[in-house]
Design brief:
The protein has 325 residues and is of the alpha/beta class. Helices cover 44% and strands 18% of the residues. The strands form two sheets. A six-stranded parallel β-sheet has the order 2-1-3-4-5-11, sandwiched between helices. The protein is elongated.
Length: 325
């Protein structure tokens, strides 16, 4: 494997000069830079990014910790984060926590050891002090860890309000919401709060069901839907906490001979691309995933540059009606 000394010998310059070219330090003529880069290309030399980060106290790497990369929402959001980071000259180091406290802690240690410039968190299993002690630029999405840690999210309350209002306008009088457990302390619970507020305002019957402790346990959601139709057969409108849960609701209706949207109307949340492939396509509250991803990266970069940033960043949502309402 070629070294920086081999490049220097090939280019006819000193190793220090090669280092200056790699780190863009001091005045360097275009001719000199071309000569060094040509030598690197001919030798197939690849700089050691970690070593470079140690020398310049900046790695140009952002860590991202999410619960489940296999889920469509997190997959799409990760894609937007990576794309914008790359445009800004940064690489992404992706960690899949599975909502496991030990894994999340290990990944945080790894990211700090890798000298990442900042961390975007979509997982939150540790105590607040653990995040404060990272001593790194930090941004969370859909999680308000503490008042002094910036977060980005969609307007969850407005989304819940839009979804429930649509069901009521479509004639639904027996409503149900299925989502994550309130004790998970994630901002998406505001969707449920809005649902209950709107149902109460219109004096309508409603039921709220949630998993015990894991907002991504979709087998549990399928069981909850079975429970819902067994105990509340009168339900004619479902607001699901995500498009995936909405897809399970659609499946549950078909299994029980309930027509959608004639007998039961369904609204999801997220606006993932996959929902348009379902039959019928699901009505949803679309999160601005591209804007969320871009803003999360921008907030990290602003902190890297020494700027202070506001704590709350709440982006608007849109109702996108499919064929389930």
């Amino acid at each position: 494997m070629p070294t920086i000394k081999d490049v220097a010998l090939k280019a006819g310059v000193s190793a220090t000069t090669v280092s200056r070219v790699l780190n863009n330090r001091g005045y360097l003529s275009e001719e000199l830079k071309h000569k060094v880069h040509q030598a690197m290309e001919e030798l197939n030399y690849r700089p050691n990014e970690l070593a470079r980060s140690l020398s310049r106290s900046k790695s140009n790497i952002i860590g991202l910790i999410i619960p489940h990369v296999s889920l469509p929402f997190f997959g799409e959001l990760t894609s937007h984060i990576e794309e914008h980071a790359y445009r800004e000259g940064y690489k992404l180091l992706l960690c899949n926590s599975w909502q496991d406290k030990q894994k999340e802690q290990e990944y945080i240690h790894m990211l700090r050891a890798s000298r990442v410039d900042g961390i975007i968190m979509g997982s939150h299993t540790l105590e607040v002090e653990a995040y404060r002690q990272m001593n790194l630029p930090l941004v969370t999405f859909d999680r308000q860890i503490s008042p002094d840690i910036p977060y980005v999210c969609s307007d969850n309350y407005e989304g819940g309000k839009l979804a429930t209002t649509l069901l009521i306008q479509k004639g639904c009088r027996h409503l149900a919401h299925i989502g994550g457990h309130p004790k998970l302390n994630i901002l998406s619970h505001l969707r449920c709060v809005a649902f209950e507020d709107m149902a109460k305002q219109h004096n309508l019957e409603y039921v709220t069901l949630h998993t015990d402790n894991n907002s991504f346990d979709f087998e549990a959601y399928e069981q909850l839907l079975g429970q819902l139709f067994a105990e509340h057969p009168e339900v004619d409108g479902i607001f699901a906490g995500s498009d995936i849960i909405a897809a399970y609701a659609l499946k549950a209706c078909r299994t029980r001979g309930r027509r959608v949207p004639e007998d039961v109307k369904i609204v999801g949340y997220d606006g993932i691309m996959l929902r348009s492939l379902l039959d019928p396509p699901i009505t949803t509250i679309r999160q601005p995933m591209e804007a969320i991803g871009k803003l999360a990266v921008d907030l990290i970069l602003q902190q890297v540059q020494g700027h202070s940033v506001a704590a709350a960043h709440i982006l608007p949502v849109e109702l996108e009606e499919g064929a389930t309402t």
